[in-house]
Amino acid sequence: MSDDARIKSTRIHTGRVINLDVDLVRYPNGATGELEIIRHPGASAIVPFLSDPAGADPQVLLLKQYRYAASGTLYEIPAGRLEPGELPEACARRELLEETGCTATSMTPLTSMFTTPGFTDERIHLFLATGITRGEARPEADEFMELESIPLSKALQMIERGEIQDAKTALGLLFAAGFRSGR
Amino acid sequence: MSDDARIKSTRIHTGRVINLDVDLVRYPNGATGELEIIRHPGASAIVPFLSDPAGADPQVLLLKQYRYAASGTLYEIPAGRLEPGELPEACARRELLEETGCTATSMTPLTSMFTTPGFTDERIHLFLATGITRGEARPEADEFMELESIPLSKALQMIERGEIQDAKTALGLLFAAGFRSGR
Fold first, then answer.
1. How many Å lie between the alpha carbon of B148 and the closest alpha carbon of chain A?
2. Nearest to residue B80, comparing CAs of B110, B114, B41?
3. What does the DSSP assignment read for A63-121?
4. A13, B42, B71, B167 - which has most CB atoms within 10 Å?
5. Which of B20, B116, B146, B168 to mutate to test the interface with A (most CBs of A within 10 A)?
């Protein structure tokens, strides 16, 4: 529908992470209007289980990451943007390695979600990683993060208490906790 | 930390929904760099329960909404941006009324989350609405949506199957399903 809906697209800003377009759009009722849209390449995020996800209270690996947009640190699962031509699973394995030093024998797709579809086409692809071997992280120069291994039950409490404030992280943990028994 | 971290902010675009800044930032290690950041006023989203959330398989109200950024329709919970000076609960009640025609006797905060903190300061405030009285929706001219009442168990299946692809919606439903018994 999008290709039909787009009448004109004007690139306002070409950035390092995102691009901003203002598009002239034809709505489903035939009316037209302008919409701001942040073009994003998409991202992958990984819920890393350090022990059997179907076992009793498995350990998950979280990052405590500095985020300028959040004015401080957030608990997050490892994640990052897709490089040009990169498939979501390859991105997930690359980001897991870069941010945590971990490799995984199994990288199972959980779901894909639009992060905030009112103004961006960003989709995040969520994976569950098991069979983890730990190694040395190699974060980028503008990434500041510490690793924490946390029991899943505690991570769920942190969501309920508002101590986990990153949507992809809460979603990945709740999704894995809710549906992992069926896998 | 953000106020200390911001050295300079340049407004690139002032839009209808979002603003784009490029900020010169001092990182935690003292290094400096430029970051694109989408400034957003924040939003509220509501999980509307049409029957007792603690009862057996309660009904929830979803929207099937046209989203240009998603090239089609998405199942979503009602949601919208905060107006200047508006509190999250007032926004939640206003958006619930505008998008669904519903009023709620109880609007309980669930959690607040950063939607995608790598490039925006948008926070979404999630609420659980109960004691619903239905009325006539009054969507805005650029909003195209249909209402669907769905059993919570089916909505959770739709998340697992990838039929619900909006992050705030999946998060709100999973959060409400996971933690409602404790309320």
1. 19
2. B41
3. EEEEEGGGTEEEEE--EEEPPTT--HHHHHHHHHHHHH--EEEEEEEEEEEES-TTTB-
4. B167
5. B116
User: Which residue ranges make up each domain of chain A?
Assistant: 2-39, 43-182
pTM listed for this prediction = 0.95
Note if A143 is an active site residue: yes
Residue B3 exposed, middle or buried by CB count within 10 Å (0-12, 13-18, 19+): exposed
Q: Is the ipTM of this complex over 0.85?
A: yes
Per the document, the length of chain A is: 183
Write out pLDDT tens, residues B49-95.
999 988 999 999 999 999 999 999 999 999 999 999 999 999 999 99
Specify the CATH number of the domain B43-113+124-182. 3.90.79.10
Q: What size, in residues, is chain B?
A: 183
How many CB atoms within 10 Å of residue A73?
Answer: 17
Catalytic residue IDs of B: 143
State the amino acid at position A168 in one-letter form: K
CATH code of domain A43-182: 3.90.79.10
